[in-house]
Structure formats: structure tokens, C-alpha cells
């Protein structure tokens, strides 16, 4: 299980810098993420051993079991997005000596889920997380309600199923439906159109063990999704739109995403985000329509690519934490956050650039054109700000230099005068509100 070095061809970096990349670039980034995950899992195991954590034996047995599985099952186990994010946080907690806050025992639950998927024989001791009593989360499979006073569970895997022994109770679990109401498998969303498939697991259990939060302060839903059918309906509509009209985006989303984290629905609009260390996942509240879902996927896949690229190459040198205005946020952003936002909104602008020719109704076409102009100009202005920053690394500057001509070309495409005026009004209103908020925050 030794990770290998990774090279990113210059041509791939050039393509990523324009906001594209395609499935080939995504696969290269995925391979690097797999090596990162191998190192993280080993770090959790070694640190658990070094500090003589109470879960040490269970963690070491789990690590050995997954290491003995074939590559595809090992990749699925280590690469499940919430597991990767959990490993980053857990290794950090153990390294800082915050042993009580860490839950390395999740590695045993990861191994149990991997054994079920691989139909491998296994007998594992799984420590339960004291922070979430009364439940056993098997990442990528489901959640079992157990005795709240229990501290450990035994999981015996055979023939693609598992028997959980906990506090004198035995429960058979697995992929198949079981009559036991305590076992809740995670639902999977599927969409296939135009020969391209998308499969997203709604894992609402494992995220509760991730000691990080999703962007924009939103919390993942950590109970059962009450209506997966509504998510399925929205996803299928979005997938038809992406595969028919935005094929390059659909190909990247298909290659990159494997998990969706449901967020609580806000009072207005849609909330979405990504985890820095959970490549392959996107978080969002239930979109109001297929088009909203499609543009959100176009937005978030850009964040995923850039987060994975940052794991390979730093884009910003260390330095004073200056904050900057971002035309899409109410709060000032650090330099790396500004770069992230510019790259994501390059993808948003590209979506609306194509979508304005798809819409049949005048109002929808006007809306699409306004959004195209708005986000093209917002991203272009931000890229100009980024170009003036001396803290960009060579790769960071290469990325910015790649975005600039794309946005400049789009800015010169003909648009209706009314749409351009509406876009300018929205940009001006956002900036005016931001200036008023900053003025109110300054002491007299």
C-alpha cells in the first residue's frame, strides 16, 4: 500500500487553468487523492499506536484487513469522501495530543463496510463514538441504531452481509433490504442519460464524525433523508440538462462525484459547498429545479478540481492574511479563498454562456444572459485583482493567467443591452451593500 509520486503534465495544467480539464484531468487528480488517503490512513494507524490510544488494537486490525483487499475495494474504502475528511481531522487531533476529541475507531467501521462490499470474511471489534451514542455508522453502507450505553460492537462479515453483535443483540445488515427497522441503508441516487451515468450516495451518517464544517457554515443532515425521491427527481432533470447541453461539465461531474451531502433547506435560495479534504463529494440543499441543480454541480466541480490541485501544488505563498472583496460573498475573503471563488465562478459563467442559447422563453433567456454577464465580469475583475498579488506561486499565477484570456473573450461576446444593464446593476448593488457593511463595522 505504498503511494507513488505523481506528475501532472503541463498540457493538463494548461487545460485546468482555462477552467476545463475533462475526465482525464479528474482521473489524474483522483490518483493523487488516493495516494494522499493511503498516507492519511497510515498516519492515523501510526499515531494511534504511538499515543497508545484505547482503540489501538481495533485500528491496527482494521488497517491490516483493508490493506489485504484488492485495489478497487481498498480505494473505495479509503477514498469514501467523509472517510478521507475524517482522516485529516483525526490525524491532526492525535498529532496535537487531543486524544479525547479524536475517534480513530471509525477505521474499524470502514474496514467492516469494506469487507461487506468485497464479500470478504472478517471478524472485527468496532469502537463506538462516545460523541454519538446509540449508533454504528458503516461508511458507504448505512447506520444501525444500537444500545446508547454500548461502547463497542462486534461485526462479523461473510457472503456480502454482516452480523452486528452489540449489547446482547444481533442484527443482520448489508446492502439488501432487511426487516429490522434499526438498520437504515444509505440511499443512492442514479441518473443515466446520453450514455453517461452518475451515481451519488446520500451518506448522512459518516459526516457526523468529520471534525470540519462544510463551506458557508451549513451543517450536513445527519439523520435519514426523508424523501430521496425528490432528490432523485431533481438529479435526473439536472443530468438530462448537463448531458444534452453542457456535456464537458457532465463528463467531469460523472468522473469526479460519488457522494452528495444533503443540507437543510434555507429560507430562500439554495445552499451548497464542498469539503477541502473530501474529494468526490458535494453538499447542497434540495434544489428548487433541475436548472439550479445543474449550475450548482457546474460550480462545485470547479471547487473540487482546485482543492485537489492545491494538494499537489501550493497556489499561494505564506504571508500576511490580507482580506479581499469577492462579488459573490457578503464577507471578505483570504487570497486562496478569492482564487477558489474566481475559479468556481468561471465555471458558473461558462454554464450560463451556453444556457442562454438553450432557454426557449424570453424571461428565462434574459435571466441566463444576465447571469452570464454578471459572473463573467465578476470573475474577470477578481482575476485582475489576483494578478496584482505577489503571494501567488508559479502554479497559482499560471492558473490566473489561464483564466484571464477566457474571461476576456467572453466579455467581448455580444449580449442584449438590457441584460448587460441588469447585470451591472446587480454587481453595483452587491458592492454598495458590501461597502456599507464594512463602513458600519469600522469604528467612528
In short:
With 444 residues, the chain is of the alpha+beta class. The protein is built from 13 helices and 14 strands. Helices cover 51% and strands 14% of the residues.
Key terms:
alpha+beta, 13 helices, 444 residues, 51% helix, 14 strands, four-stranded antiparallel beta sheet, three-stranded antiparallel beta sheet
Task: Write structural notes for this entry.
This protein has 444 residues and is an alpha+beta fold. Among the domains are: 30-185, no CATH class; 313-444, no CATH class. It is built from 13 helices and 14 strands. It has helices at 10-17, 22-50, 56-67, 71-79, 81-95, 106-118, 228-245, 247-256, 290-312, 335-355, 362-387, 394-411, 417-441; strands at residues 122-127, 135-138, 142-145, 152-158, 161-166, 169-174, 183-185, 188-193, 196-201, 259-263, 272-273, 281-285, 323-324, 333-334. The strands form five sheets. The protein has a four-stranded antiparallel β-sheet. A three-stranded antiparallel β-sheet has the order 2-3-7. A three-stranded mixed β-sheet has the order 10-12-11. The longest helix has 29 residues, at 22-50. Residues 212-217 have low confidence and may be disordered.
Amino acid at each position: 500500500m505504498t503511494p507513488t509520486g505523481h506528475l501532472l503534465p503541463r498540457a493538463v495544467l494548461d487545460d485546468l487553468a482555462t477552467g476545463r480539464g475533462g475526465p482525464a484531468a479528474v482521473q489524474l487528480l483522483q490518483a493523487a487523492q488516493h495516494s494522499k488517503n493511503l498516507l492519511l490512513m497510515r498516519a492515523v494507524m501510526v499515531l494511534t499506536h504511538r499515543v497508545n490510544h484505547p482503540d489501538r488494537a481495533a485500528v491496527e486490525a482494521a488497517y491490516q484487513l483493508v490493506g489485504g483487499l484488492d485495489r478497487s475495494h481498498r480505494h473505495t474504502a479509503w477514498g469514501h469522501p467523509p472517510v478521507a475528511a475524517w482522516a485529516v481531522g483525526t490525524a491532526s487531533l492525535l498529532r496535537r495530543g487531543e486524544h479525547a476529541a479524536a475517534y480513530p475507531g471509525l477505521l474499524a467501521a470502514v474496514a467492516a463496510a469494506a469487507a461487506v462490499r468485497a464479500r470478504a470474511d472478517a471478524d472485527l471489534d468496532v469502537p463506538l463514538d462516545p460523541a454519538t451514542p446509540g449508533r454504528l455508522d458503516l461508511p458507504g453502507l448505512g447506520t444501525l441504531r444500537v444500545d446508547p450505553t454500548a461502547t463497542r460492537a462486534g461485526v462479523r462479515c461473510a457472503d456480502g452481509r454482516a452480523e452486528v453483535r452489540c449489547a446482547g443483540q444481533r442484527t443482520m445488515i448489508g446492502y439488501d433490504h432487511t426487516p429490522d427497522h434499526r438498520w437504515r441503508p444509505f440511499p443512492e441516487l442514479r441518473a443515466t442519460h446520453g450514455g453517461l451515468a452518475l451515481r451519488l450516495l446520500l451518506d448522512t451518517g459518516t459526516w457526523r464524525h468529520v471534525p470540519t464544517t462544510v463551506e458557508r457554515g451549513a451543517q450536513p443532515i445527519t439523520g435519514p433523508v426523508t424523501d430521496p425521491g425528490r432528490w432523485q427527481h431533481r438529479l435526473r432533470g439536472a443530468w438530462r440538462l448537463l448531458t444534452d447541453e453542457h456535456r464537458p461539465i457532465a463528463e467531469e461531474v460523472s468522473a469526479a462525484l460519488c457522494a452528495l451531502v444533503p443540507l437543510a433547506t434555507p429560507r430562500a435560495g439554495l445552499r451548497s459547498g464542498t469539503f477541502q479534504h473530501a474529494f468526490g463529494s458535494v453538499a447542497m440543499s434540495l434544489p428548487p429545479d433541475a436548472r439550479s441543480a445543474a449550475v450548482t454541480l457546474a460550480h462545485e466541480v470547479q471547487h473540487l478540481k482546485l482543492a485537489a490541485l492545491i494538494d499537489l501544488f501550493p497556489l499561494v505563498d505564506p504571508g500576511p492574511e490580507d482580506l479581499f472583496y469577492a462579488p459573490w460573498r457578503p464577507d471578505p475573503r483570504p487570497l486562496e479563498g478569492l482564487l477558489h471563488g474566481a475559479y468556481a465562478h468561471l465555471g458558473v459563467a461558462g454554464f450560463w454562456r451556453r444556457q442562454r442559447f438553450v432557454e426557449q422563453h424570453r424571461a428565462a433567456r434574459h435571466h441566463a444572459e444576465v447571469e452570464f454577464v454578471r459572473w463573467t465580469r465578476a470573475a474577470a475583475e477578481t482575476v485582475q485583482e489576483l494578478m496584482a498579488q505577489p503571494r501567488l506561486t508559479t502554479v497559482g499565477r499560471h492558473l490566473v493567467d489561464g483564466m484571464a484570456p477566457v474571461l476576456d473573450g467572453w466579455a467581448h461576446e455580444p449580449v442584449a443591452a438590457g441584460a448587460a444593464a441588469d447585470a451591472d446593476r446587480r454587481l453595483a448593488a452587491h458592492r454598495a451593500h458590501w461597502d456599507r457593511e464594512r463602513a458600519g463595522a469600522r469604528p467612528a
